[in-house]
Write a structure and sequence with these properties.
48% of the residues lie in helices and 19% in strands. The chain is built from 14 helices and 16 strands. It catalyses: ATP + protein L-histidine = ADP + protein N-phospho-L-histidine.
C-alpha cells in the first residue's frame, strides 16, 4: 500500500511545490503594489495639502487687494494695517495648522513690498533664481535645494490685475518626504515634476542592483513618483520549504489517511478563507468566526473573529476622533469671528437702505444677518430645528435675490420646531441642490423642504426636480472617497451626535430629481414637549 501511494504523494508534492512558487510570486507582486500605493497615497496627501494652502492664498480677493492697494492710491499706513490685521494672522494660523510648513513668503512688484518681513520686491537680486521662470499655472510649481522644498504660484490676473505677485511655501525637505525616507530595503524612490526637475531621490538611486522600475503619478498634481526595486523580490519562501518537508513526511503515511486529512484541512481552510474574503469585500457586515471546534482551525477562527471585532472597534474610535477634531477646528474658527461687529455693521447698512427706500437691499441685509446669526450659533454645534429652518429660509431668500430661476416651498410641522438638531445640517444639502441639481433652463425648477415626525424620529427632507445624480456617483457620495465638506460631513456629524442608525438617506433619478432625507431621533429641549 505504501509503495502504491508513493507516486501519488510525489505527484502531489510536485504540484504543491509549483503552487507554492506561484503563491510566492503573487505574494511578492501584491507586496510591491501595496508598498507603492502606500507611498503614493502618503505623498499625494502632502502635495494636495500644500496645493490647498497655496490656492487659498492666491485666490483670496482680500489678500489680492492688499497688493493692489498702491494702484488705487490707498495710504501706506492703511496697507500696513491690512497686512497686520489680516495677512499676518492668516499666515500664523496656516503655519500652526501645518507643522511641516516653515515659511510663507510673497514676492511682488507692488509698492507694498517691504511693509512686512515676508513681503519681498520681485526684482530683488537675492531672490531665489527659479522665481524668474514662474508663470500662471493650474497647479503650484515645485523646486528644491539641498535642505528645502518650495511650492510657488503666481496670483491670477483676476485677483491682482495690475501687479505681479506670487506666493512661495517653504517646507523642510526631510520632513516633507518623510514617508519615502522610511523605505523598505528593497525599494528606492525618486520624485520629479512634469518638466523633469528632481525634487527628491533616495541615496543610491543609481544602484545597479535595483534594475526594475515603475512610475506612479500623484493624482492630477503633475508630480511623478518613480520606484526602483531589486531584481529578486521574494517574500514567504518558507511556503516552498515547508511544502517539500511536508511531502517527505507524507510519504510515511497511508494514502487513505493522508487523503482524508488533506480533505479535512482543505474544507476548513476554504471556509475560513471565504469568511475572511467576505470581511475584506464587505467590512461593515457582521461575519461570525465563532466555532465549537477545539482543533487548530477552531482556535484560529476564534482568534480571527476577535481580531476583526477589535479592528471594527478601532475604526469606530478613529472615526469619532476625526469628527471631534473637525468639530474642534470648526468651533475654533467660528469663535474668532466678532459677531457683535458683524451684526452692528449689518444693522447700519439696513438703516441706510431704509433711509434710501431701497427695500431689496434692506431685505437682503436682514436675511444675511439672520443667516450669520443662525450659522454662528454662538460657537455651538447643537441647536434647535427652528434655528435651522430660520437659517435655511434666510439662505434661500439671499439665493433668490441672486438667482430667480427656481421656486421654494415648505411643509413644516410647527410642533416640531423645538426639536433638537445640529447646526448647519440643511444648508449644505440645499446648496448642493442649487449648484449641482437645478439649471436655469428648467422653467419649473423647485426646491421643496418638509419636516415631519414618524415613529419617534424627526425627518427633514430636501427635494429638487433637477438633473438627478447618476447611479455610479450616488453609490459613493457618502463614502471616504467623496471630496469636500458637503454631504458626507453632515452625515458623519449626525452619526457622531445621535448614533450610527441616524444620518442621511439619498434617493435620486437622472432627469427627475433628488431627495435627501435627514433622519434624527425626535428629542426636544429640556422642559419642552
Amino acid at each position: 500500500m505504501l509503495m502504491v501511494s508513493i507516486p501519488a504523494i510525489l505527484l502531489l508534492g510536485t504540484i504543491s511545490f509549483f503552487q507554492g512558487q506561484q503563491v510566492d510570486t503573487e505574494t511578492s507582486q501584491k507586496y510591491l503594489q501595496n508598498e507603492i500605493r502606500s507611498k503614493q497615497d502618503d505623498l499625494t496627501d502632502e502635495v494636495k495639502s500644500a496645493t490647498s494652502i497655496i490656492n487659498t492664498l492666491t485666490f483670496n480677493a482680500s489678500i489680492g487687494e492688499m497688493f493692489e492697494s498702491q494702484s488705487v492710491k490707498q495710504s501706506v499706513y492703511n496697507a500696513y494695517l491690512s497686512f497686520r490685521d489680516y495677512l499676518d494672522p492668516t499666515t500664523k494660523l496656516l503655519l500652526s495648522l501645518n507643522p511641516d510648513l516653515q515659511d510663507i513668503d510673497y514676492y511682488t512688484d507692488s509698492k507694498v513690498a517691504g511693509l512686512r518681513g515676508n513681503i519681498h520686491p520681485l526684482s530683488a537680486s537675492d531672490n531665489p533664481k527659479f522665481l524668474k521662470n514662474i508663470h500662471v499655472s493650474e497647479n503650484p510649481q515645485w523646486f528644491s535645494d539641498q535642505e528645502n522644498l518650495y511650492a510657488v504660484r503666481a496670483f491670477p490676473i483676476t485677483v491682482t490685475p495690475t501687479t505681479g505677485t506670487m506666493v512661495m511655501l517653504t517646507y523642510n525637505k526631510a520632513d516633507f518626504f518623510r514617508p519615502l525616507s522610511k523605505q523598505a530595503p528593497l525599494f528606492l524612490y525618486r520624485v520629479t515634476t512634469a518638466q523633469g526637475t528632481v525634487l527628491f531621490s533616495s541615496p543610491g538611486w543609481k544602484n545597479t542592483h535595483f534594475v526594475n522600475h515603475t512610475a506612479a503619478p500623484l493624482g492630477t498634481t503633475g508630480i511623478l513618483l518613480d520606484v526602483k526595486y531589486a531584481t529578486t523580490l521574494r517574500i514567504g519562501n518558507r511556503i516552498v520549504y515547508w511544502t517539500i518537508i511536508g511531502v517527505l513526511l507524507s510519504i510515511l503515511e497511508i494514502v487513505l489517511l493522508t487523503r482524508a486529512f488533506t480533505n479535512g484541512i482543505s474544507r476548513n481552510f476554504l471556509q475560513l478563507k471565504g469568511k475572511i474574503q467576505h470581511v475584506i469585500e464587505k467590512p461593515r457586515e457582521e461575519v461570525s468566526f465563532d466555532t465549537k471546534e477545539k482543533d487548530e482551525f477552531g482556535q484560529l477562527s476564534n482568534a480571527i473573529g476577535a481580531m476583526v471585532t477589535r479592528v471594527h472597534e478601532l475604526n469606530d474610535r478613529a472615526l469619532q476622533a476625526e469628527i471631534e477634531k473637525q468639530s474642534s477646528k470648526y468651533d475654533a474658527l467660528v469663535n474668532q469671528i466678532n459677531s457683535h461687529f458683524l451684526y452692528n455693521t449689518l444693522s447700519m447698512i439696513d438703516w441706510q437702505a431704509r433711509q434710501s427706500k431701497n427695500r431689496t437691499i434692506s431685505i437682503a441685509v436682514r436675511e444675511l444677518s439672520t443667516f450669520y446669526r443662525t450659522t454662528l450659533n454662538h460657537g455651538r454645534s447643537e441647536t434647535t430645528l427652528k434655528n435651522e429652518i430660520d437659517n435655511i429660509k434666510a439662505y434661500l431668500t439671499l439665493q433668490l435675490v441672486l438667482h430667480d430661476y427656481f421656486q421654494v416651498s415648505y411643509d413644516i410641522d410647527p410642533h416640531l420646531l423645538k426639536a433638537r438638531a445640529i447646526n448647519l445640517m440643511i444648508q449644505p444639502i440645499v446648496e448642493n441642490a442649487i449648484e449641482h441639481g437645478l439649471t436655469e433652463s428648467k422653467k419649473d425648477a423647485e426646491i421643496f423642504i418638509s419636516v415631519r415626525s414618524e415613529e419617534g424620529e424627526l425627518l427633514v427632507q430636501v427635494t429638487d426636480n433637477g438633473v438627478g445624480i447618476p447611479p455610479e456617483k450616488l453609490k459613493g457620495i457618502l463614502s471616504k472617497e467623496a471630496m469636500g465638506y458637503g454631504l458626507r460631513n453632515v452625515d458623519q456629524r449626525i452619526k457622531f451626535y445621535f448614533g450610527k442608525q441616524y444620518g442621511l438617506h439619498i434617493a435620486s433619478k437622472v432627469g427627475v430629481g433628488t431627495s435627501v432625507t435627514i433622519q434624527l431621533p425626535l428629542q426636544f429641549e429640556e422642559g419642552v414637549q
